[in-house]
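User: I'm curious what two different proteins look like when written out as structure tokens. Can you demonstrate?

Assistant: Sure. I'll show them one after the other, since each token string lines up with its own sequence. Here's the first protein:
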Amino acid sequence: MSRSRQSINAAVSVALYQEQGYLVVPNVLSEAELKAIRRELAELVARASGVTENDAVYDLEDGHTPAVPNVRRIKDPDAVMPSVAALIRHPGMIEILSQLIGPGVRFHASKLNMKSAGGSAVEWHQDWAFYPHTNDDLVAVGVMLDDVDETNGPLCVVPRSHRGVIHDHHANGFFCGAIDPIGSPIDFSSAVELVGSAGSMTFHHVRAVHGSAPNRSTRSRNLLLFQFGAVDAFPLVHPVDDLAKFDQMIVAGEATIEPRVTAGPVRMPLPPAPSQGSIYENQRAMANRFFG
């Protein structure tokens, strides 16, 4: 795919991201790139037959058994999948990120959320609630490994919610990684489903309210997620303790030790969730659920 086809229209698409808090860019990855990721993912899932509980690599669905492996997340896939590690510096993706939050861009983390038929929902939340920084030029990138439509649990974003408050993500006094839908002022019916063909990418602002329903189809919906931030955005929750390692994660631009500090709402994810681990574990403490 040529670089021109990977480019986005700065006059329209960047403006859409800034106004709405999300963006969908079709056909960023080639079929060959998708096949490499799918092949490594299939190998990882096959090895899950020897896993009986969540560990450093796997987050398992409640119905997982050795005979019928059912994985809902690969944690840090860039550490165990060479194809994902290579994708972190994909020129098409970095070009888009540089326009949205650049010129300096830093990789933060990856995860691969898997939704087989009936796969788990992710309740409404804001990523900012998990990891506030000195400024909010942070974005999550979703790489569609399967075709995504309205039936197989697409990522849903509430438009313009990135411009509002940081909602409470606590239950019974502890962080739970989700917004209580009962009494919430958010109009969840306004949420937009981010759909597209395999190889497309979604981009959503760190403060955007988003979630996804269970997969109600017979097809998988595997979504590789990357977290990126501006180079001058420094974390508030887990301060940098190894600057050299922190700077090795820069994918565009130059390093700095001068954080850009901007006014913005922050609510710390403390006290920590009773169920530590992935967002699925955190959300077990919710009092009320939207997706059921």
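Here's a second, unrelated protein for contrast:
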Amino acid sequence: MNLDWRAFAVGSALFAALTAIFGKVAVTEINSDLATFLRTIVVLAVSALIIWARHEWQRPDGLSSKGLLFLALSGMATGLSWLCYYRALQLGPASRVAPIDKLSVVFVVLFAAAFLGEPLTWKIGLGTSLIAAGAIIMLV
């Protein structure tokens, strides 16, 4: 069975929803920064297990320097995002934090158009505008 990107995107959304719910419960018991650190260890372990099971390990010296640089930048952005997200969950309700966090979709569309040259069609513009409107409504 060949799954395309849409199946993984829906999986990402489902797991992101569970992340909010499980994370909210966790940060009622554990400091958000420590929770983020511990969560990162779990992500590392799960990723290592998947790479090992699928025989996908590659030596770092054989990888693209540009790819590694941008992967490091992505990792830093992820870490900062998680720290902010868990702090927001610690301070606010998950039902409001998670939708506001989805403003990331708006930023991705704008950055993808500006930096990656991806097309900004009317459908993408309309969908992005609706996401932005929903997140803004959740802010007030």
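A detail about the second structure: The helical segments are 5-27, 32-53, 65-91, 94-101, 103-115, 122-139.
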